[in-house]
């Protein structure tokens, strides 16, 4: 991709990603493969189906919890936060 | 968000091959067409990077010509569809950044082209980070240019495994092996049905063979992933165990091989996304691949007046078939609107050509489905910790207890007693597994019940409360 | 089939001491208590366990919503019996003694609630008035603007499908209950004087001198097979289910209007807020009641109204997502009383249905008195108000 990079913040860390990437892809491009934990087993989850059907890839985006990271395209300045436990934490 | 129309002539749900083909035909006839799609860009799963020059817009047309009379609302998701006299009311929710925006569109004709999602079966370790659907890996690469992992094992069944493999290596990734559960001799059994479309696709097949050869990727047929393991202090994928399997996919003792990989893709065919069609009570049948498909007549009409369906919803068959069905649906939509809903056969050479091409592609799709079946009896026999429902973290043991000790004789009862299918994804990932664990052959009624989700995508209470009250 | 000594063997089919029609929570309790009394019981259902209304229930075990009378007495007995059932089926049915809170938004509604509670106390209901800080201590996220509430510590919640399944499974394990699922009842066999001799299914005859009609919303159809009328009508209800959340609603919370609705004769829509959390983290929102036959068509205006009413009680749920809705048909008798006990018109036939939204709560006591009736004991509660004959002495 030849478009200029944009900066998003992942758990407080600024990261340069390509615009047009999904939030999930942006996180994976930094080596992150899991960004939330399950309610019962506290097990890590990240991308699974990749097209919005499985709801595994939920992440907090700009303060809103449970956003499907695979369906959202990054915007400059996005604050992405990993989620824990009962999904609204 | 964009100002949305409250009504239109044709509402198309899904901006993939089928949806766009239908939309173009309908709009070309002067109808007001609205297309909605959950993704940020049109093109569906096949054209993840947006639509440049797909085969379903007439050659030589410009972008402006194609999109005239078509209003596209990308990111919007339909969560409900209801009949209202002569109209269909479809309720939409804004994208993930605008979940509080709810909107309803009344349309005279509805075309449902909502595509499909990879079909899954529960395997020990499939819930680990680094395991993803083949389609998920593909959309990651095609849509965002990101690799799913450093070294990937591509597994499951069907020609789609090769498409996933190609996407990975063309993006510079490494595929450790392709693990195909079915045997190639099945293809030979259906060779006659695979022609003549098979010949047309042979170029594609040769391309895949060349990719496998050039990158020295082993293609193991009659093999299946039986366990996916993490590392000592990391739950994410570190290795996968593969066994040779018999025709029912049962592992053959002593044949285990381990692959050191950080990514495993899973895909056992596809499940059509039929929520809205089931809400509308459309008739459905079991497809050759064991999944549910909505019934349509020769002109893509469902059993519900004014509701058409095209693409994977009528039976999984790939992008070319979706495009043809979309065109037929679009033409039929025009006809319905011109003749005030009277169902008469459009009479033209174009239609004959489309019907014939659809017939060829459907036969091919059916032959492929029969060549790459997905048996399920082996699922119950797995001995490792197997998580059937990922959302609610329900184990195979719990499901079998409900079946064997608590009197659950169908998928609905298993759901009520174990919560499998009651989590965020409402059974989309686990229903095929659960159905496979139920006694007896799968009934259409049971599949329809599982596919009938009253709310297609989660909607905020506050936004719902603001809508019309009783 | 269980081993029994000294019983008459009929020519074909299976023999039981009693047959229970319906494997929902009421049928399961009946079967359980009959088995505990030493009987060999066959349970028959046209579907799976909990396939009917039990599968659509919230799991309410309430004393709070009943005015003094026979039904409240039954509810109090049932509440006690449910706590005993915990020892039988363990925590498998997720029984929670969480208590219920009836909320009055404005002072006059609160006053009505207080008067209602005073009458209930005379019957043995524990009811405490709670306002202000004390109320918020019980239910932290409740709308602080409400005038006041009554706290009912005896109210409980269970997972009704698990309760039904485990009660039956236990009986099966000890060899007392045999479960026939996916088995349609097509007739009731009767002998001399119309006395029950068994149940006809599509496949075979199940013989028994006692048949318990626990077919819920379809109880009228079963009764008709024995030639008697039991007018049970369906009263549709919808429940909204939210995404899973950390514990946000601690008790069962409902608005005062809920009590009035249950007793209402209105065929048209009656909605009032009922909100409760579950062990899985989802919040259930009800409650609507309409008499629209067996129509399952979803009505979005009802969904909007229920959502709005829930938000009035818990404004904090504004952005919480609704994941699904489901509907069910409560079995409804014209006089709002269930039908429980022996049918004087048909020897050997007992009814245990028509519990109209209180089936789960009343199931334990229903099963208990049914077993007492069958064993010839004096029932803990006078069953006269629940008698089937109140609908007419004549046969259909």
CATH-defined fold name of chain A: Ubiquitin-like (UB roll)
Summarize the amount of helix of chain C as a percent range. 25-40%
Strand content of chain C: 25-35%
Q: What's the shape of chain A?
A: globular
Side by side, the strands of the main sheet of chain C go: 6-7-5-15-16-17-14-18
Describe the global form of chain C.
globular
Rg over CA atoms of chain C: 21 Å
The Cα radius of gyration of chain A reads: 12 Å
Biggest interface: chains and residue counts? B-C, 38 and 47 residues
How many distinct helices of chain C? Answer: 9
Query: Quaternary status of these chains?
Result: heterotrimer
Widest sheet, order of strands of chain A: 2-1-7-5-6
The description of the largest β-sheet of chain C is: 8 strands, mixed
Task: Name the poorly predicted regions of chain A.
Answer: none
Strand content of chain A: 25-35%
Helix and strand sequence of chain A: EEHEEEEE
Total helical segments of chain A: 1
Round the mean pLDDT of chain A to the nearest integer and report it.
90
Query: What's the CATH H-level superfamily name of chain A?
Result: Beta-grasp domain
Model description:
With 89 residues, chain A is mainly beta. Chain A has a single domain, classed as Ubiquitin-like (UB roll) (Roll), CATH 3.10.20. In chain A, strands 2-1-7-5-6 form a 5-stranded mixed beta sheet, with helices on one face. A two-stranded antiparallel sheet of chain A has the order 3-4. The longest helix of chain A is centred in the N-terminal third of the chain and has 7 residues. The termini of chain A are far apart. The model of chain A has no long low-confidence stretch (mean pLDDT 90). In chain B, strands 1, 2, 3, 4, 5, 6 and 19 form a 7-stranded mixed beta sheet that branches. Chain B has a 5-stranded parallel beta sheet with strand order 8-15-9-10-11. Chain B has a 3-stranded antiparallel beta sheet with strand order 12-13-14, with no helix packed on it. Chain B has 470 residues and is α/β, with parallel strands linked by helices. Chain B has 3 domains: 184 residues, 3-Layer(bba) Sandwich (FAD/NAD(P)-binding domain), CATH 3.50.50.60; 149 residues, FAD/NAD(P)-binding domain (3-Layer(bba) Sandwich); 63 residues, BFD-like [2Fe-2S]-binding domain (Arc Repressor Mutant, subunit A, Orthogonal Bundle). Chain B contains 16 helices and 22 strands. In chain B, helix 3 packs parallel to helix 4, helix 9 runs antiparallel to helix 10 and helix 12 crosses helix 13. The mean pLDDT of chain B is 91. Chain C is of the alpha/beta class and 396 residues long. Chain C folds into 2 domains: 173 residues, FAD/NAD(P)-binding domain; 154 residues, D-Amino Acid Oxidase, subunit A, domain 2 (D-Amino Acid Oxidase, Chain A, domain 2). In chain C, helix 1 runs parallel beside helix 5 and helix 1 packs parallel to helix 9. Chain C starts with 13 loop residues before the first strand and ends in a 22-residue tail after the last helix. The N terminus of chain C is likely disordered. At the B-C interface, helix 13, strand 22 and helix 16 of B face helix 5, helix 8 and strand 18 of C.
């Amino acid at each position: 991709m030849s478009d200029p990079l944009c900066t998003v913040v992942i758990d407080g860390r600024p990261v340069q990603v390509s615009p047009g990437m999904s939030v999930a892809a942006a996180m994976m491009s930094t080596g992150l493969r899991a960004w939330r934990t399950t309610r019962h087993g506290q097990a890590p989850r990240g991308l699974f189906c990749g097209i919005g059907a499985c709801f595994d890839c939920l992440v907090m985006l700009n303060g809103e919890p449970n956003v499907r990271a695979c369906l959202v395209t990054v915007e400059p300045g996005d604050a992405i936060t990993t989620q824990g436990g009962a999904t609204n934490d | 968000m964009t100002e949305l129309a409250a009504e239109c002539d044709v509402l198309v749900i899904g901006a993939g091959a089928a949806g766009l083909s239908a939309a173009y035909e309908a709009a070309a006839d002067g109808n007001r067409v609205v297309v909605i799609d959950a993704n940020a860009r049109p093109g569906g799963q096949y054209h993840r990077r947006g639509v440049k020059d797909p085969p379903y817009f007439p050659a030589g047309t410009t972008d402006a010509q194609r999109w005239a009379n078509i209003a596209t609302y990308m990111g919007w998701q339909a969560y409900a569809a209801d009949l209202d006299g002569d109209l269909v009311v479809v309720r939409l929710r804004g994208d993930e950044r605008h979940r509080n925006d709810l909107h309803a569109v009344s349309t005279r004709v509805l075309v449902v082209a909502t595509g499909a999602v990879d079909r899954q079966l529960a395997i020990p370790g499939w819930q680990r980070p680094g395991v993803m659907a083949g389609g998920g890996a593909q959309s990651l690469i095609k849509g965002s240019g990101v690799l799913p992992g450093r070294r990937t094992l591509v597994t499951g069944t069907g020609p789609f495994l090769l498409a996933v493999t190609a996407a990975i290596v063309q993006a510079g990734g490494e595929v450790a092996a392709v693990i195909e559960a079915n045997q190639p001799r099945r293809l030979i059994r259906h060779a006659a049905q695979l022609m003549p479309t098979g010949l047309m696709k042979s170029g594609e097949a040769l391309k895949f063979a060349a990719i496998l050869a050039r990158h020295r990727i082993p293609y193991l047929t009659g093999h299946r992933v039986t366990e996916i393991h993490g590392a000592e202090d990391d739950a994410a994928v570190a290795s996968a165990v593969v066994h040779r399997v018999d025709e029912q996919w049962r592992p053959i003792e002593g044949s285990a091989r381990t692959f050191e990989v950080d990514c495993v893709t899973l895909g056992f065919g596809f499940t059509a996304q039929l929520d809205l069609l089931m809400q509308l009570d459309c008739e459905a049948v079991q497809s050759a691949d064991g999944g549910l498909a909505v019934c349509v007549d020769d002109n893509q009409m469902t059993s519900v007046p004014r509701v058409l369906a095209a693409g994977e919803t009528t039976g999984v068959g790939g992008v070319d078939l979706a495009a043809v069905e979309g065109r037929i649906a679009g033409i039929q939509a025009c006809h319905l609107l011109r003749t005030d809903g009277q169902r008469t056969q459009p009479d033209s050479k174009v239609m004959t050509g489309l019907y014939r091409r659809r017939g060829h592609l459907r036969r091919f799709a059916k032959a492929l489905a029969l060549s790459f079946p997905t048996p399920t009896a082996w699922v119950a026999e797995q001995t490792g910790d197997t998580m059937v429902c990922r959302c609610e973290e329900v184990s195979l043991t719990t499901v079998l207890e409900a079946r064997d000790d608590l009197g659950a004789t169908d998928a609905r009862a298993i759901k009520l007693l174990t919560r499998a299918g009651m989590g965020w994804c409402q059974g989309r990932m686990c229903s095929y597994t659960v159905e496979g664990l139920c006694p007896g052959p799968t009934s259409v009624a049971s599949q329809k019940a599982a596919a009938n989700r009253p709310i297609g995508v989660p909607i905020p209470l506050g936004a719902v409360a603001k809508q019309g009250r009783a | 089939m269980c081993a029994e000594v000294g019983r008459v063997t009929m020519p074909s089919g299976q023999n039981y001491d009693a047959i229970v029609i319906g494997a929902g929570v009421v049928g399961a309790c009946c079967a359980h208590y009959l088995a505990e009394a030493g009987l060999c019981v066959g349970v028959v259902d046209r579907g799976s366990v909990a396939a009917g209304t039990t599968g659509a229930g919230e799991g309410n075990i309430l004393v709070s919503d009943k005015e003094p009378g026979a039904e409240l007495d039954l509810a109090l007995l049932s509440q006690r019996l449910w706590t005993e059932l915990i020892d039988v089926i363990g925590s498998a049915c997720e029984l929670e003694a969480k208590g219920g809170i009836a909320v009055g938004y404005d002072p006059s509604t609160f006053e009505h609630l207080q008067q209602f509670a005073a009458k209930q106390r005379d019957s043995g209901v524990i009811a405490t008035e709670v306002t202000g800080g004390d109320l918020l201590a019980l239910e932290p996220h409740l709308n602080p603007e409400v005038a006041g509430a009554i706290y009912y510590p005896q109210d409980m919640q269970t997972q009704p499908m698990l309760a039904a399944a485990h009660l039956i499974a236990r009986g099966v394990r000890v060899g007392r209950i045999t479960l026939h699922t996916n088995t349609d009842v097509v007739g009731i066999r009767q002998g001399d004087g119309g006395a029950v001799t068994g149940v006809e299914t599509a496949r075979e005859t199940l013989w028994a001198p006692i048949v318990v009609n626990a077919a819920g919303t379809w109880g009228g159809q079963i009764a008709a097979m024995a030639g008697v009328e039991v007018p049970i009508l369906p009263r549709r209800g919808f429940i909204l289910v939210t995404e899973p959340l950390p514990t946000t609603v601690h008790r069962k919370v409902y608005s005062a209007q809920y009590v009035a609705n249950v007793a209402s004769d209105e065929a048209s829509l009656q909605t009032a807020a009922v909100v409760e959390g579950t062990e899985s983290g989802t919040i259930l929102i009800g409650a609507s009641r309409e008499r629209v036959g067996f129509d399952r068509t979803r009505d979005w205006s009802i969904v909007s109204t229920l959502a709005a009413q829930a938000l009035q009680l818990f404004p904090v749920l504004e952005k919480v997502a609704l994941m699904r809705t489901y509907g069910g048909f409560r079995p409804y008798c014209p006089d709002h009383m269930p039908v429980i006990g022996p049918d004087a018109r048909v020897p050997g036939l007992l009814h245990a249905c028509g519990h109209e939204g209180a089936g789960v709560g009343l199931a334990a006591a229903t099963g208990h008195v049914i077993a007492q009736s069958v064993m010839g004991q004096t029932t803990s509660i006078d069953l006269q108000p629940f008698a089937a004959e109140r609908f007419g002495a004549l046969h259909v």
